[in-house]
Amino acid sequence: MMSVIDLSCIKMVWLRDILRYFRERSQLYGSLARPVLWLFVLGMGLRGSYGRVQDVDYTQFIFPGILAMTAIFTSVQSAVSIIWDREFGFLKEILVAPVPRTSIAVGKGLAGTTLSLIQGMIILMLAPLVNVSIPWLNILPLIGVIALLSFSLTGIGIVIAARMTSFQGFGTIMNFIIMPMWFLSGALFPFDRLPGWLTVLVRVNPLTYGVDLIRKLVLGFSYQPPLLDLLFLVGFSVITTAAAVFFFSRGEY
Amino acid sequence: MNLSIEVDELHREFRGFTAVDHISFSVDRGELFGFLGPNGAGKTTTVRMLSTLSRPTSGSARVAGFDVVHQHDMVRKSIGIIFQDPSLDDRLTARENLRFHAMIYKVPRKEVGQRIDRALEWMQLSDRADHLVRTFSGGMKRRLEIGRGLLHSPGVLFLDEPTLGLDPQTRARIWERLLDLRKTIGTTLFLTTHYMDEAENCDRIAIIDHGRIVALDTPARLKGRVQGDLVRLSTADDVSAADEIRGKYDIEVLEESSGLRLEVDDGAAFVPGLLRGLSVPVLSVSVRQPTLEDVFLRLTGREIRDEEAGEKDRLRSRIRRMGRAGR
Question: CA-based Rg of chain B, rounded to a whole angstrom?
């Protein structure tokens, strides 16, 4: 019997994604354009008509949300590249190799996490431009939280990729699952003064807790106790990882 | 143990559609074994089961001594496979594709560089090693895939329609490489094809149709099943000519759209008499030795044709998709 963790397989899957990321510059620029647009255009645009919350203005308020957005979209997109690999045939090369599927999924998860972190770091460097100053001591925990959030989301991406047989459904998934999850995460508006039904949706959304924790580390305040946020985030990543491994392992390609 | 592949009553159904119907055969170590049949005959399904990519509905198979269901990891370590559709990462270079392959197959680190160079050399791609695969021609991609399939020194190499869609010159080059490989390293080669001329290169051929093996032998012996020579005849009135020949010679006459077709022991001796005695004017006549195409026609009553591919390919990809979604 083969063990479930195959380091050389994880390394291969990870390295390939990283290599391709740096080779395809357009992907890099493209994925940075979105957060920059949201932060500067939407953030600056709404700043005037938005009062101060907890002593921060709107661009400062959404900065943690933009960090989360970068993690969300980068990791889901990275995992969904499995669909491309299936379409162009490379997936077969990995699947017929004597390696456990679990390790392929883990490699994919780590690659998505790494890319998310790289993008996240770039966004983090924009902090001074919107007058956000993050305490130095919070940087390392922040990286940890973004990594955990990204790893969970690659899990969702892998489940989507394993269940989807064509690329056509991808836009639908993004619009019906990923976009709403981000909108309902409290990334764009404070969620202590929402109508009841919206509060419920925000509270059942696992991303809310990730965004809240990032907010605590970046801006110094949160809507939930940080420990509770962390607990939810860890639980979320355990569930998505398990789902990713389960769905990816049982598919016949 | 000298058997490389042993297949016993292997069977695969896709929701009521039988793709492979209780086939049994074995392949010797070092043999070049061909699966010949039209598209949709069950060739790819067989390769997928032998390479552990899909499970048989019933029956069993051993590859390199390991059971394809219960010891699939061992099977995977012992085989290389070249799929019908491309499976390279075309955003990477040839060398990178090979290096990643070596990584997941755990080729000892010290040997990796040397093996990659050798594979590139074998496949005559050394000068393009560091180019992106997307710039390669179809034939180069195929050669790279074959080189990659051999990188971890598998005991058995599966090739599913290795020359499909390539031009004749490229096909010839791929074959030259395969025959060279066989001579130099002695890996067992199991390939599928629907090209008759390619099947002639094999040590033995299994002719497969509608999921069943209808014949299995060496190309020479298979051709021996068609008696003597083939005479093709076209006349001013094929129908009455056919009747006349049947009456006179007591042999089977096949009426085809292009003319008549008869099998006789000695064509060269038969034709002059035929021409002299026939009352219908003869437009053309040809005599030739039987080919595998004739054997196939004889065994299945049909010709292997590319025209058939359209519908069957669609069916096959639909089945494939169903199989994928169902699990």
Answer: 23
